[in-house]
């Protein structure tokens, strides 16, 4: 038995925040705004996992009106989501993600993101793929107003 899920998220850039993407802090002049640490990639992955098990989305599990999640570590939120995946009797088949960002260059950090996500999802690095693309300076990402991320996940019965 297999279950598929997909996730999409966007966060706006803001000053004075660390840039967290895929559980990795990327040195950059600005970070992303959000109630949590605004890790747009981990949010997309969490939504893909929740979608695959029919459990709604991260806003339902971790409301942005709840002070408990203020500046939350998105790695911890994803770890909680993965506990739900396991409770439903599933494990990761594979995950494929895309970061949509004009800047900064993600390539140097992709390996560390894959390692981090694989560790959280109790999987091998080969089960986790992370890609990045610009939008050729088009749209909000192209104007460097924010970053988007997409994720597609396949879960297998454990
Ligand atoms: N923020 C980004 C965007 C892209 N990359 C890498 O560059 C390649 C070319 O990007 P295009 O948008 O011109 O297709 C892309 O395949 C990524 O390897 C990146 O590292 N960081
Ligand atoms: C993660 C949560 C909770 O801290 O806050 P944000 O960082 O604003 O992120 P978002 O992608 O809007 O999703 C759900 C939220 O409830």
TrEMBL record:
Residue ranges constituting the 2-C-methyl-D-erythritol 2,4-cyclodiphosphate synthase domain according to the UniProt record: 2-155
Site positions per UniProt: Transition state stabilizer: 35, 134
Name of the top EC class for this enzyme: lyase
EC number: 4.6.1.12
Superkingdom, natural source: Bacteria
Alphabetized InterPro entries for the sequence: MECDP_synthase, MECDP_synthase_CS, MECDP_synthase_sf
Chain sites annotated for binding 4-CDP-2-C-methyl-D-erythritol 2-phosphate: 9-11, 35-36, 57-59, 62-66, 101-107, 133-136, 140, 143
Cofactor(s) needed by this chain: a divalent metal cation
One Gene Ontology term of the molecular function aspect: metal ion binding
Annotated a divalent metal cation binding sites: 9, 11, 43
GO BP annotations listed: isopentenyl diphosphate biosynthetic process, methylerythritol 4-phosphate pathway; terpenoid biosynthetic process
Keywords: Isoprene biosynthesis, Lyase, Metal-binding
HAMAP family: IspF
Subunit note: Homotrimer.
Role: Involved in the biosynthesis of isopentenyl diphosphate (IPP) and dimethylallyl diphosphate (DMAPP), two major building blocks of isoprenoid compounds. Catalyzes the conversion of 4-diphosphocytidyl-2-C-methyl-D-erythritol 2-phosphate (CDP-ME2P) to 2-C-methyl-D-erythritol 2,4-cyclodiphosphate (ME-CPP) with a corresponding release of cytidine 5-monophosphate (CMP).
Protein's recorded name: 2-C-methyl-D-erythritol 2,4-cyclodiphosphate synthase
Gene source species: Heyndrickxia coagulans
Taxonomic lineage from the root: Bacteria, Bacillati, Bacillota, Bacilli, Bacillales
Gene: ispF
């Amino acid at each position: 038995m297999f279950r598929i899920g997909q996730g999409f998220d966007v966060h706006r850039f803001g000053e004075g925040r660390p840039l967290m993407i895929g559980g990795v802090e990327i040195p950059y002049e600005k970070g992303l705004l959000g109630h949590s640490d605004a890790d747009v990639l981990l949010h997309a992955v969490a939504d893909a996992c929740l979608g695959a098990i029919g459990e709604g989305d991260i806003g339902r599990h971790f409301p942005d009106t709840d002070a408990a999640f203020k500046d939350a570590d998105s790695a911890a939120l994803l770890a909680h989501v993965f506990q739900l995946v396991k409770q439903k009797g599933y494990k990761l088949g594979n995950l494929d993600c895309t970061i949509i960002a004009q800047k900064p260059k993600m390539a140097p950090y992709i390996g560390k993101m894959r390692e981090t996500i694989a560790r959280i999802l109790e999987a091998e690095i080969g089960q986790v793929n992370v890609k990045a693309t610009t939008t050729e300076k088009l749209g909000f990402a192209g104007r460097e107003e924010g970053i988007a991320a997409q994720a597609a996940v396949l879960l297998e019965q454990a």
